[in-house]
C-alpha cells in the first residue's frame, strides 16, 4: 500500500491518495484543483473507489463534485457535517469569501458510529476526532502504519478551534484519546503541511504539553 500527498488550492490542503498494487485507490479530501488531481490519477493509471472526507470545511471539499462525477464514485462523510457539503454558510466558503461558494450534492454514505470501514480490498479504522470541527474523523491504516488526521493534528501544531463548531478542549481530548494512543512510529498525514509521527508530536508539540 502506498500513500501520495497532493497539496491543492490556495491553502495547499493536502489531498491523500491511498493505493494498492492493483492500482485501486481511495481519495481523501479533494480540496480544490480537480483537474490537477484527475491528471495525477489518470497518469498513474489508478482506479478510484471512493472519496472520503476527514471533515467538510471548504478547503477540503472544493473538488468533491468534479472528482465524484469524473470517476463515478461515492462520497463518505460524518453525520455531524452531512449538511456542510450543500451549505456554504456551514462549510466556511461564505464566511471567508473565497471568491466562490462551495456547494455540492449530499454524500452517498453518512458515517455515524462506525469503527472500521471496508471499501474494496481496503480496510481501515475510523476514529472520531472532533474539536477542529464537530464531524472531524481520522483514518488509521494499521498494517501500513499511518493515520490520516485531517486538521486535528499537525507537525508541531493542532487544528484551529475558533471557527463555528470548534472546541479547543474537545480537540485536545480527541488527540490524546484517539491519536496519541497509536504506536509512536505511526506516520501522521495532516491536512496541511508535512507528515510527522505520533512519537515526534508527543515529544515536541508545544500544544500538547501540560494537557
UniProtKB/TrEMBL annotation:
One of its GO terms (molecular function) is metal ion binding. Its cofactor is Zn(2+). The keyword Phosphoprotein does not apply. Signal peptide: none annotated. It comes from the Bacteria. Keywords: Hydrolase, Metal-binding, Zinc. Residues 12-192 form the Metallo-beta-lactamase domain. Pfam families: Lactamase_B (PF00753). InterPro entries: MBL_Glyoxalase_II, Metallo-B-lactamas, RibonucZ/Hydroxyglut_hydro. PANTHER family: HYDROXYACYLGLUTATHIONE HYDROLASE GLOC. This is Metallo-beta-lactamase domain-containing protein. It comes from Cytobacillus solani.
Amino acid at each position: 500500500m502506498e500513500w501520495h500527498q497532493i497539496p491543492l488550492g490556495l491553502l495547499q490542503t493536502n489531498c491523500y491518495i491511498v493505493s494498492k498494487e492493483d492500482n485501486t485507490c481511495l481519495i481523501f479530501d479533494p480540496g480544490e484543483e480537480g483537474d490537477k488531481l484527475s491528471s495525477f490519477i489518470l497518469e498513474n493509471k489508478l482506479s478510484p473507489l471512493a472519496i472520503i472526507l476527514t471533515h467538510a470545511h471548504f478547503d477540503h471539499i472544493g473538488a468533491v463534485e468534479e472528482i465524484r462525477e469524473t470517476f463515478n464514485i461515492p462520497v463518505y462523510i460524518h453525520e455531524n457535517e452531512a449538511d456542510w457539503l450543500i451549505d456554504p454558510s456551514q462549510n466556511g466558503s461564505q464566511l471567508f469569501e473565497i471568491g466562490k461558494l462551495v456547494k455540492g450534492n449530499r454524500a452517498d454514505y453518512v458515517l455515524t458510529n462506525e469503527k472500521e470501514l471496508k471499501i474494496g480490498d481496503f480496510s481501515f479504522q475510523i476514529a472520531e476526532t472532533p474539536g477542529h470541527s464537530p464531524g472531524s474523523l481520522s483514518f488509521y491504516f494499521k498494517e501500513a502504519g499511518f493515520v490520516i488526521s485531517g486538521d486535528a493534528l499537525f507537525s508541531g501544531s493542532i487544528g484551529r478551534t475558533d471557527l463555528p463548531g470548534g472546541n479547543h478542549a474537545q480537540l485536545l481530548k480527541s488527540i490524546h484519546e484517539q491519536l496519541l494512543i497509536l504506536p509512536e512510529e505511526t506516520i501522521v498525514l495532516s491536512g496541511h503541511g508535512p507528515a510527522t509521527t505520533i512519537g515526534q508530536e508527543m515529544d515536541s508539540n508545544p500544544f500538547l504539553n501540560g494537557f
